[in-house]
Every structure is written in structure tokens, then in C-alpha cells.
Design goal:
single chain, 90 residues, alpha+beta, Structural Genomics Hypothetical 15.5 Kd Protein In mrcA-pckA Intergenic Region, Chain A, 5-stranded antiparallel beta sheet, two-stranded antiparallel sheet, 31% strand, S4_RNA-bd, RNA-binding, Ribosome-associated heat shock protein Hsp15
Amino acid sequence: MTDTSTRIRIDKWLWCARFYKTRELAAEACEKGRLRLNGNRVEKPGKELRPGDILTLPVRGKVMVIKVLSGAPRRGPASEAQMLYEVIEE
């Protein structure tokens, strides 16, 4: 049985982790295929993330590879957002 409490929509997680200022911008990045989840191109903002997933995304003109550590119940301060992921490669 899969635990649904650990899953979160990718657009919401990106917004909560402060990679995008709005959830709409995060959804747009997904729809344009700018993100990769575990090596596969993401085209739908409703795609679900789980702890342990590897996410590749553009950040300030560079490609960043991160490991998702946990979901986010809400958008908090930047210090809290940094606890949601681990940078693998910048």
C-alpha cells in the first residue's frame, strides 16, 4: 500500500521549496518540459513527487540536480524550504 501523505504535486513542492515565486510559474516550467524527474521529462504540473526522487531543474541559468527529502505542508521561510531538498550537483 502506498502512503499518500508523502506525495505532493511537483508544482506545489517547487513553490514551497522556493524555486519559483508562484505556483503558476512552477506549473509553466513543468508544461514547457524544463524539469526532469528521475531522468524523465516532466510535462504535467500534477506529477507527484516522493522523498528520494531526483529532480533536475534550471536555476539562475545553471542546471541544478537535487534530491527530494520531504514533502511540504506549506510554504515557509527560506530556512525551512532548504530542509526539503539536498543539492547533488550545481
